[in-house]
Hints:
- The structure holds 2 protein chains of 2 kinds.
- By secondary structure, chain A is mainly alpha-helical.
- Chain A has one domain.
- Chain A is built from 11 helices and 5 strands.
- In chain A, the strands form 2 sheets. Chain A has a two-stranded antiparallel sheet.
- In chain A, helix 3 runs antiparallel to helix 4, helix 5 runs parallel beside helix 9 and helix 7 crosses helix 9.
- Chain A is globular.
- The two termini of chain A are 26 Å apart.
- The model of chain A is unreliable at 1-15 (pLDDT under 50).
- In chain B, the strands form 3 sheets. In chain B, strands 2-14-13-4-7-10 form a 6-stranded mixed sheet. In chain B, strands 1-3-12-11 form a 4-stranded antiparallel sheet, with no helix packed on it.
- The longest helix of chain B has 22 residues, at 238-259.
- Chain B contains 6 helices and 14 strands.
- Chain B has helices spanning 2-22, 117-120, 123-128, 154-165, 226-236, 238-259, and strands spanning 28-34, 38-41, 48-58, 70-76, 79-90, 93-106, 109-113, 140-142, 145-147, 169-172, 177-178, 183-190, 197-207, 210-223.
- At the A-B interface, helix 4, helix 6, helix 9, helix 10 and strand 5 of A face strand 5, strand 6, helix 4, helix 5 and helix 6 of B.
Amino acid sequence: MSGFGQPQGSFSEATRVQLYLPIADIPVNVFLILAMGAAVGFVSGMFGIGGGFLMTPLLIFIGIAPAVAVASVASHIAASSFSGAIAYWRRRAIDPALALVLLSGGTIGTAVGVWTFTLLRSLGQLDLMIALSYVVLLSTVGGLMFWEGLRSIMRVRRGVAIPLRRSGSHGWIHGLPLKMRFKRSKIYLSVIPVVTVGMLIGFIGAVMGIGGGFILIPIMIYLLRVPTSTVIGTSMVLTLVTMTFATLLHAVTNHLVDAVLALILMVGGVTGAQFGARAGQRIRGEHLRLLLGLLILAVGIRFAIELVIRPDDLFTIRETGGTG
Amino acid sequence: MMGRRFPAAIGLLLVSGMVFVVSPARAERLIVSVSNHRVTVTPNYSGEELVLFGSVERDATTPANRNSYDLVVTVIGPRADMVTRRKERKFGIWINADYREFLQVPTYLALFSNRPFDAIASPDVERRQQLGLNNVLLTQRVGTDYGDVVPNDAFRRAFVRLRAEHGLYREETSAVTFLTPTLFRTGIPLPAEVPIGTYEVEIKLFSDGALIARTDTAFDIVKVGFEQFVATAARQDGLVYGMVTAFMALMTGWMASIVFRKD
């Protein structure tokens, strides 16, 4: 009725960048979403992380419902981790056995995560839990990274050599039963902590809309002693599978995955990541960690402020079904 | 055989008698029509207005001195269950605390009249005929009970206000215009966010504070276009939708790895 009624020509075409997101139920500017995808992709390429912890908050800040943001970003991360995993596979930098054991926990964690997500949503506390989780997780991780980056910069300034942390001492984790040999990583490790870590990452990822790489990689390096040669590739395989599974489960249970939004994010994200990776190689490691720490911290603080200030409207409405 | 036919004949007589009793000679009859019985909403739809036309048909039994009519049009969209939640400050942060469930309430609700409801009828009639947003029945679940609450209940007020902010609940007491003493029209604004489904339109005619005639009509709102296709697919075939989305994600990732391959 109205679509063809405006013969203004190219000018009105140029201004029609508004796209209606079918599931998020709001009109958005295509270029804004594309730019956000590219910016997050740039950052994720630069630091070698998935970027979900930035993407989900950004979407929430522009007005997309947290539940839709979490569910849609899952598919965005699946795309970016798949292109990453392919690259690492070619370089034989993935440990298939380790990835499989991680995944057995990861899929269970994801299923429990989506179930928890659905439960919280029906209780009306989902948005709060997403915001709280972001505050806790991001300020902790961001703070630690920032502090660590600052300390190593100081050390480099003072000319002190950084001691390599990889000592031969075996912690309690290495005393656990059910040991298994992971050939490509050249480690001999109990499957219990590996499955637990997989479950934890799967759970956090499904509830918060993050791949979890920025938590998983430090755990794998410092706790499980996985060598750096296989750690990123293997963590990407876990992220890929948990996020694909999460996309599927979110679509089946909550019907909240916005495919249109996800597609724009993916296209922006995978492109941005390429340029980010190049930029990342020119910056020194400790500066990179300092920057990333600051960024994570800033997002966490933004969430905290949102929770503390009085909202404009104390009331909200949500349809619970039964549409006639 | 004869014995069987008689009761049937009596039954028929009774039925026709009942019909006669149920429809007494009414003095006025309403004839209405909406400008479009099937509204198609495209992705770049930015709201439009339906027009409802009608006339009051008088007959021989109409009192000769009855000249002024009042008209109330109620448009009721598809019904759904909704929850209204209120945030409270706890432990220094704002969280959803108390809530009310509204059961099978209209997703769209509009009331139009030619003059204020309190001028049309007495408060008692207003309440019984559900004239005005304050008098429309919005069933809430109160514990194990069901019922509407007083109009100034905080949750009911917030619910109506939030719906009104999106143009989904409205009340206009000057929207109905009488073109002649018996010919009337009113616009039904439909904002961009209108829910799809069947909309019932109730037209009630009042004179001297009493309901003298009523009629109903309806129209459908259908959404078309790619966005609606996606939304419907997501809701109805979650599994297929999820698999297609996941596959799309993997294809995008795979294509990116080919396009940007470095070696």
